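Worked example 3 (structure in, sequence out).
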């Protein structure tokens, strides 16, 4: 029996990957890696990892999350993290990976972050040209 359960669901065109259990060396991290590669092969480009129920994570598990991030970026996608437990936040801070990922406290914030990216840019107000002669 695996120590990690992975469940995918879609909200507003964004895939939420709910992780429940251990993300550690062995079968569980290869399971996560395969799940993320499968999403890319299906054309899914906007992905949020929900870490709320992650009980344990080690350096190998962090490596798989980084690999998933790289895979999605290479395919023109984005991987964001939500609901990080304190122990995961501490590990991400120590390893300085916290600065690499977009991290949000809630699912709603994570989803909203994709919506703001998809909005067309608003034209800047025209600046009045003035010249001053000295």
């Amino acid at each position: 029996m695996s120590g990690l359960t992975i469940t995918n669901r879609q909200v507003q065109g964004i895939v939420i990957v709910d992780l429940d259990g251990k993300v550690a060396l062995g079968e569980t991290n290869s399971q996560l890696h395969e799940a993320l590669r499968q999403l890319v092969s299906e054309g899914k480009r906007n992905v949020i990892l929900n870490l709320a129920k992650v009980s344990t994570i080690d350096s190998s598990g962090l490596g798989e999350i980084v690999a998933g991030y790289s895979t999605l970026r290479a395919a023109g996608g984005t991987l964001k993290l939500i609901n990080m437990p304190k122990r995961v936040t501490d590990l991400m801070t120590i390893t300085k990976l916290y600065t690499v990922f977009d991290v949000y406290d809630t699912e709603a914030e994570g989803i909203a972050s994709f919506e703001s990216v998809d909005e067309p840019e608003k034209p800047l107000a025209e600046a009045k040209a003035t010249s001053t002669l000295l």
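Notes: The first helix runs from residue 27 to 41. The chain has one domain: 4-103.
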